[in-house]
Amino acid sequence: MKATKSSAVSTERQKRARAALAAALFSAFALYIAWHAAHESQTRPVDELPLSSARGDDTSSPAVGANKPDLVKRGEYLTRVGDCAACHTADPGRPFAGGLAINTPFGKIYTPNITPDPDTGIGQWSDTDFVRAMHEGIGKSGERLYPAFPYVEFTRVTEQDVLAIRAYLNTVAPVHYRPPANALRFPFNQRWLMLFWNLFNFNEGRFVPDPKQSAEYNRGAYLVKGLAHCEECHTPRNFMQGLKTTGRFSGATQAGWDAYNITPDRTSGIGNWSDEVLISYLSTGVAPGHANAAGPMADVVLNSTQYLTREDLRSVVAYLRAQQPVSGGVARSRDTWGKPAANDITALRGTAITSVNGLQLFVANCASCHNWTGEGVGASAPGAYPSLIHNSVAGAASANNLAMVILHGVARKTKDADVLMPAFGDELSNDQVAAISNYVTKQFGNPQATLTPDQVAALRAQPQ
């Protein structure tokens, strides 16, 4: 009896302790919100800081209220830097009208219409509405935006540049189109919950140049950390799908594609790429002897980085060079693997093929462009068929990107060349894609990077 009474008393004490703890946490949270609201206007960095050397422009660039054509032209350039068209254009015939489906672990988000249509776009948004969305992640009606829209990075962009983007968007053709409603699971469809997400993953405020660094570094930092939002793809995410504070630029996976390590580590990252090679990759999608852009990165080159001025490209490179190298445990660079095939093709002569054979499939589907030796055609000329030897995709620790290229092909149009590799997803089975991938990695790349048909099936199922 005494034991039962003692147990009941103990349980009651535990309940009271938990209630007290919950009350304390709620009180602390409420105090934080109150403090944040009271100090927000005092602690927010001032937009009017002298950022001409950090915005990626020169001191003659137009500010708000300057000549309208110059402001629109500046806004068009900045819209390119931000790659706004990539997310806000589902149909090339309706640029900026939104409707692109973005798949997240919590459901599907459809991008909004940002044309000046007054009913379905942002035609009735004030400049203040637009700035608040970019800087604070809050829509016209006070709704909290989801971080699929990268306001986490856009908050660093100066008000002058945000208004230049708005000026340009005001000039694009209005499109009367209402994108589908988001399809997010409960409770993730409750926008007010973004308040808590922001507490852990969002620091609102404009970019402030580092006085200890050069103007070139600061300009690169402004671009990479702001409009270009490079971390959105190249930085790993935490369990809340926010960007991790450690391992910045060390690589991540997006829709089945591996966004590689772009830290200056000489083995895992881009430390052994010269400045000119990096600039070539950003402006053309080709890094001779290293890599060729495909998948989402090809879209970035197509829509954004090929339009950056050489000064801005050099600034981006300077900033990336100064980042903390992350090794990731990789022992050999992706672009150092492989050798030309020697006698493989002659071994097929007179041989009866009774099962899925990677070499046979490679010869039948790939050799006409990449050569049966794997050395490609056209060397480093614009539009050349790339070598599979010393190729980052073939030499990566994971063969995911290789399989994705086979499944979905490559479409990358730049000022220098129109690169097109056909997609084989409708022609080849999962077993066949796996066989080709494993032959390519064994002969021309990292032989430890292998794929099973089931893994190819999982990649094929990734929405693009």
Poorly predicted segments: 1-9, 22-65
Beta strand count: 9
Distance between the termini: 66 Å
What would you report as the Rg, rounded to the nearest angstrom?
Answer: 26 Å
Query: Could you tell me the strand content as a percent range?
Result: 5-15%
The structural domain count equals 3
Order of helices and strands: HHHEEHHHEHHHEEHEEHHHHHEEHH
- What percentage of residues falls in helices of 4 or more residues? 40-55%
Largest sheet: 3 strands, antiparallel
Name the structural class.
mainly alpha
How are the strands ordered across the major sheet? 1-2-3
Outline, from the CA principal axes? globular
Give me the number of helical elements. 17
Calculate the mean pLDDT score and round it. Answer: 86
Domain Cytochrome c: 70-173, 215-324, 353-444
Organism: Paraburkholderia unamae
Region (Disordered): 44-68
Pfam family, one: Cytochrom_C
Describe this structure in words.
The termini are far apart. It is built from 17 helices and nine strands. The chain has a three-stranded antiparallel beta sheet, with no helix packed on it. The chain folds into three domains: 68-201; 215-333, Cytochrome Bc1 Complex, Chain D, domain 2, CATH 1.10.760; 335-460, Orthogonal Bundle (Cytochrome Bc1 Complex, Chain D, domain 2), CATH 1.10.760.10. The radius of gyration is 26 Å and the shape is globular. The protein has 464 residues and is mainly alpha-helical. α2 (68-81) crosses α6 (159-169), α4 packs across α6 (159-169) and α10 crosses α12 (310-321).
